[in-house]
Amino acid sequence: MADPKHPKPNDQVLDLSDLTLVDITPDAISRLSKLRDGHAVAIANVLSASALALKRAGIHPDEIQEIAAPWADVQRIDEVLPAVEKLLELLHETRLVRGHEIAMRLGEMAQQIRRRAERSPDGAEILAPFEAMLAYQSGPALKAAATKEKARANDDAPTTSSPA
Question: Can you spell out the DSSP letters for 102-164?
Answer without folding.
Answer: HHHHHHHHHHHHHHHHHHSTTHHHHHGGGHHHHHHHHHHHHHHHHHHHHHHHHHHSPPP----
